[in-house]
């Protein structure tokens, strides 16, 4: 994968999640850019700023509880398929307290769920990064993932 973006509200620095995020970020061989969105209002302003970061031609994944659940092997197969198709830029959109707008979900190529539970968005960001790392390891044939 040539480029992975995580577009999410809030700053992870100086939070209890910072060290864990840094751990997985440091293990990742694929280029990662995190766009931390600061917004004055919880929804509309945040959604506009997320939308402005979407790059034409990127494969867009919106994280939302109403999305599709995927096993880790399916998630890694998605990366493999995208690379085979020459789509080397993937963007993950994460919402804050109000989630993502209907418009952002419609713009996504995939709406992905980590389950029906509600997760704090900083913890969900770490869960996403761990799954990206896991996909990298699966595709490299590394024994990190056990099925």
DSSP strand (E) fraction?
Answer: 15-25%
- Under CATH, the homologous superfamily reads SPOUT methyltransferase, trefoil knot domain
Low-confidence stretches: none
Order of helices and strands: EHEHEHEHEH
The helicity comes to: 25-40%
CATH architecture: 3-Layer(aba) Sandwich
The main sheet orders its strands as 2-1-4-3-5
Briefly note the CATH topology name: Alpha/beta knot
What structural category do the secondary elements indicate? Answer: alpha/beta
* Average predicted confidence as pLDDT: 92
Q: What's the total count of β strands?
A: 5
Number of helices: 5
| Straight-line distance between termini | 23 Å
Question: Could you say which overall geometry the principal axes of the C-alpha atoms support?
Answer: globular
Summarize this, please?
By secondary structure, this protein is of the alpha/beta class. The chain contains 5 helices and 5 strands.
């Amino acid at each position: 994968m040539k480029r992975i973006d995580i577009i999410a509200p809030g700053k992870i620095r100086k939070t209890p999640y910072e060290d864990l995020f840094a751990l997985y970020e440091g293990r990742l061989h694929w280029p990662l850019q995190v766009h931390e969105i600061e917004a004055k209002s919880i929804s509309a302003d945040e959604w506009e700023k997320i939308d402005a970061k979407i790059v034409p031609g990127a494969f867009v994944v919106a994280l939302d509880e109403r999305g599709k659940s995927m096993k880790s092997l399916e998630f890694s197969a998605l990366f493999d398929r995208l690379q085979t198709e020459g789509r080397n830029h993937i963007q993950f959109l994460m919402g804050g307290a109000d989630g993502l707008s209907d418009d952002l979900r419609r713009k996504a190529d995939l709406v992905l769920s980590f389950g029906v539970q509600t997760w704090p968005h900083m913890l969900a960001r770490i869960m996403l990064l761990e799954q990206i790392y896991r996909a990298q390891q699966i595709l490299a044939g590394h024994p990190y993932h056990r099925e």
